[in-house]
């Protein structure tokens, strides 16, 4: 049995400025977006529709806004509205943690729709392009949650070799759920999606596969995480995270069905929206 190391959430300080590990994980997520994106641009079927390194740099600015604003609003509205409306000053305290993936997902959708309108790109072509870059960024965020000793798992069998006591919660052995989600929802999903996206796919197929796989993975790993709250449908009780994952599963199925029925390929950006 293990004990959570409870590291200092502040990585280092420069004068009065404290740099938190959670913030560094987001910087790591954005850095891998550029790195993985440049590898993706080298794929022949991606280069053939005109994706360039300059697109990544411009897209990242919109994506950061979508992730941060959407993720924080999702945390406030989906998970802890009562707390944040009672403590409005904490709404902007992102360094303490508290970012909703589902909120960030919606934020990125809106941000990419705005960017695509500017550049003459179809939204689904954008989402197909960036989908393989998302899981490793998510994994970095979950590592930040673990460092912050957030999202403790449900009680675990003490005989489980990696069962872990979280001193900031209690003395009960628990599943290290942020690590599970980092490995399954993040790294495993990246591996599967990267290989799927290596070959040409119909428009919406890669985005649909991401939505389906993430929804299923998150629904599964939520069984090991202490729920923020539970909801019941027809006598079946699920966690808030599972409830928010169901629409992603449904969306993924719909996108895949439509994609393989239409089999329409991505198109180059319109010359009038190229930004040149």
UniProtKB/TrEMBL annotation:
Q: Which domain of life is it from?
A: Bacteria
Q: Name one Pfam family in it.
A: LGT
- Where does this chain mainly localize? membrane
Q: Where in the cell is it found?
A: Cell membrane
Alphabetically ordered keywords of this record: Cell membrane, Membrane, Transferase, Transmembrane, Transmembrane helix
Span-the-membrane segments of this chain are: 20-39, 60-79, 99-116, 123-141, 179-197, 204-221, 233-260
Membrane topology term reads:
Multi-pass membrane protein
Coiled coil ranges (UniProt) are: none
Q: Which GO terms describe its molecular function?
A: phosphatidylglycerol-prolipoprotein diacylglyceryl transferase activity
Q: What does this protein do?
A: Catalyzes the transfer of the diacylglyceryl group from phosphatidylglycerol to the sulfhydryl group of the N-terminal cysteine of a prolipoprotein, the first step in the formation of mature lipoproteins.
Quote the HAMAP family the UniProt record gives.
Lgt
Could you identify this protein by its name? Phosphatidylglycerol--prolipoprotein diacylglyceryl transferase
Question: Organism source for this protein?
Answer: Herbaspirillum lusitanum
Q: What is the lineage of its organism?
A: Bacteria, Pseudomonadati, Pseudomonadota, Betaproteobacteria, Burkholderiales
Q: Which gene encodes it?
A: lgt
């Amino acid at each position: 049995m293990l004990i959570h190391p409870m590291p200092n959430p502040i990585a280092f300080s420069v004068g009065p400025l404290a740099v938190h590990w959670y913030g560094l994980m987001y910087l790591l997520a954005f850095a891998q977006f550029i790195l993985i994106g440049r590898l993706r641009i080298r794929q022949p079927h991606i280069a053939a529709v005109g994706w360039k390194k300059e697109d990544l740099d411009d897209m990242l600015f919109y994506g950061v806004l979508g992730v941060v604003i959407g993720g924080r609003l999702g945390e406030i509205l989906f998970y802890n509205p009562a707390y944040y409306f009672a403590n409005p000053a904490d709404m902007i305290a992102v360094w303490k943690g508290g970012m909703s993936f589902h909120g960030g997902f919606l934020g990125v959708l809106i941000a990419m729709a705005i960017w695509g309108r500017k550049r003459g790109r179809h939204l689904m072509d954008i989402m197909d392009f960036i989908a393989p870059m998302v899981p490793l960024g998510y994994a970095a965020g979950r590592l930040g949650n673990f460092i912050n000793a957030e999202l403790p798992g449900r009680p675990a069998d003490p005989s489980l070799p990696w069962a872990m006591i979280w001193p900031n919660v209690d003395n009960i052995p628990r599943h290290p759920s942020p690590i599970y989600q980092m490995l399954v929802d993040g790294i495993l999903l990246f591996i599967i999606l990267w290989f799927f996206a290596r070959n040409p796919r119909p428009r919406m197929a890669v985005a649909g596969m991401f939505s389906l796989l993430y929804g299923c993975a998150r629904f599964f790993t939520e069984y090991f995480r202490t729920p923020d709250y539970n909801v019941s449908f027809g006598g079946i009780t699920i966690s808030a995270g599972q409830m928010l994952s169901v629409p992603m599963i449904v969306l993924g199925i719909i996108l895949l069905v439509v994609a393989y029925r239409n089999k329409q390929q991505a198109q180059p950006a319109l010359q009038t929206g190229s930004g040149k």
